[in-house]
Specification:
The protein has a single domain, classed as Globins (Globin-like, Orthogonal Bundle), CATH 1.10.490. Helices cover about 70% and strands about 0% of the residues. It has five helices and no strands. Helix 4 (about 80-95) runs antiparallel to helix 5. It is globular and about 50 Å long. The termini are far apart.
């Protein structure tokens, strides 16, 4: 599919989110982590992601919450975030072109870097706490 327009509606966000997560679920590297964590709650997860991206990109405040805590204990490393970002970028580029598509990729990159940093931080803090007991 050739990119034809920018992200501009909730339907565009649903297309992006659904296409991205269908690829994630089938990915040999990160798919098992997502599928184990989410289990049969994919519809709820996708709904949350629609709201998250709609809030960020379209400034329609349909998401509330804190995105990091559910990810804090995931067994992931920088390589997992790199793969997540690779799939996100490929998916976005295959569907859309324009400033909001670019914004989505930038926000995803910043989020992946922040989540990776925070997960490492908490792991190291827990290790240091355990070592001092």
């Amino acid at each position: 599919m050739t990119p034809h327009h920018d992200i501009s509606t909730l339907e565009d966000i649903k297309l992006l989110v659904n296409t991205f997560y269908s690829k994630v679920q089938k990915d040999d590297f990160i798919g098992p982590i997502f599928n184990e964590k989410i289990g049969n709650r994919w519809p709820e997860h996708l709904q949350k992601m629609y709201g998250f991206w709609e809030t960020i990109l379209l400034e329609v405040h349909s998401y509330s919450g804190s995105p990091f805590p559910p990810h804090k204990q995931l067994p992931v490393s920088k390589e997992h975030f790199d793969r997540w970002m690779e799939i996100f970028t490929q998916t976005t580029d295959s569907l859309f072109t324009g400033p909001l598509a670019d914004e989505a990729k930038l926000r995803a990159k910043n989020m992946a870097e922040m989540f990776n940093y925070k997960i490492d931080y908490f792991r190291n803090a827990e290790k240091n706490q355990t070592n001092h007991l």
